[in-house]
Amino acid sequence: MTKKIVFINPLVEYSSVRDNPIYNRIWPPLSLANCGALLEKHGFDVKIIDANTEFIKPKEVVRKINGFDKVFITTSTLDRWQCPHLNIHPFLELIREIKKLNLDIYVMGSHGTMRPKEMLKATNVKAIVRGEPELTVLEICKEKNLKKIKGITFEKNGKIISNINRPLLDLNKLPIPAFHLLPMKKYFYEILGNNFTLFEGSRGCPFSCIYCLKSMYDDGYRKKSPEKLIEEVKYGIENFNIKTAYFIDLEFCINRNLVEKLCDFLIEQKYDFKWTCQTRFDTIDLKLLEKMKKSGCEIIHYGVETGSPRIMNIVKKGITISQIKRGMKLTKKAGIKQVCFFMFGLPTETRKDMEMTIKLAKELNPTYASFHIATPYPGTEFYNMIKNEIDDELFPCYYGNENELKKTVNKAFLSFYLRPRYIFSRLREGEFKLLGKQIKLFFKYLKRSKK
What is d(CA 210, CA 128) in angstroms, rounded to the nearest whole number? Predict the structure, then answer.
């Protein structure tokens, strides 16, 4: 008899900025689609419940999964492996409801990878899946002895056992994500469009920024072949009418050969397709940017982080302010919109450093600027540097004075978006709809920040 496996992406409802400093987007759980595709390839009957997208509350989820053999619940899908939400109460509520069915439950995601023993105690599930889940999930579903499965933490006879880490998988051996198991028509990215999905060309990052959580990726850097990624893109566009996509690699343009071949393919096919990615200012040049633009690249996400050269060195970003300014000029020259990320609350950061960050944001004047409080995730060098100075929280939110940091973030948003220069630049470019979206997002943030 075919075993029935269900994957769940929980509904996450937010109530305060402290619990959720990160904006919640309706994006596809690509990691679950990868797992689903791999299991289907091996003959399993698979279902994915994206409760976050379809707004399915815990009691309703329980009604949908009765009769399944194994349940896998993620605390963070692939797009949140690097920056997971810290409010895990909705996830724990779902666990409590599902446990009433007496099913085999397994937990995946960043939280269990960072804190496996603590998450096991908090959930009392059969096992915690650490790191990238695909091969580990497959072995669990094949009913392999837990003692022999790499990359899991479980309890036996009152003792918590953490097996050795699983070796990193070959991304080229993953099947095409099981998009057919997801509600594909419901995904969107508010600044790019509808009919949206995620694609993945690589995992990991060769850089050493102290704040970056890479527990799910380990320290390696792996990439798909251009042919493999192009196959997935072609399949998604032609079979699911995908119009917009985010290449979710931590640093997309560092793999220049892949980017150029992907662009060549998209230019040749002339799809009605727009895309975005995230990369560094020192991995792009005008020639590459112009090719990206021609192939449908609408927006690039850049992590600027700080305007202080001193803090830039402390966080080991490995880039200079002048390189950032040069890269921004090239991006604008190529006609590609920009999203720039900045953060406050980094080690030894002073008020002067923070003011330098706000000043740089205004000088760069990106299409979008996003300001956040830096999170000292366990497993990062940032956390190790300051762990003796913060409360003994399972997942600490901030380092420093919380109220002052919130005020700084609010000041940054207000002073950036309410500048006449910024408003006029958007209007001058005829981006009335885009400006409207920005204003909507801006007031959503302000509304949450006052709670």
Answer: 26
| Cα 344 to Cα 357: distance, rounded to the nearest angstrom | 8
Per-residue pLDDT, averaged over 181-201, amounts to 96
The ranges assigned to domains in the chain are 4-162, 188-449
Q: Please check whether the two domains, 4-162 and 188-449, share a CATH topology.
A: no
pTM over 0.85: yes
AA letter at 140? I
- Does the domain at 188-449 match CATH 3.20.20.70? Answer given as yes
How far is CA 143 from each of CA 69, 150, 409, rounded to the nearest angstrom?
A: 11, 13, 49
What superfamily in CATH does domain 4-162 come from? Answer: NAD(P)-binding Rossmann-like Domain (3.40.50.720)
CA distance 270 to 272: 7
The CA distance from 210 to 381, in Å, is 5
Residue 443 confidence (pLDDT): 60
What is the per-residue pLDDT for 87? 86
User: Across residues 145-173, what is the average pLDDT?
Assistant: 96
Nearest CA to 386 out of 351, 354, 347 is that of 347
Backbone angles phi, psi at 219, to 5 degrees: -95, 5
Q: What is the pLDDT of residues 376-407, one digit of tens each?
A: 999 999 999 999 998 778 899 999 999 999 99
Q: Tell the burial category of 339 from Cβ atoms under 10 Å away from its Cβ (0-12, 13-18, 19+).
A: middle
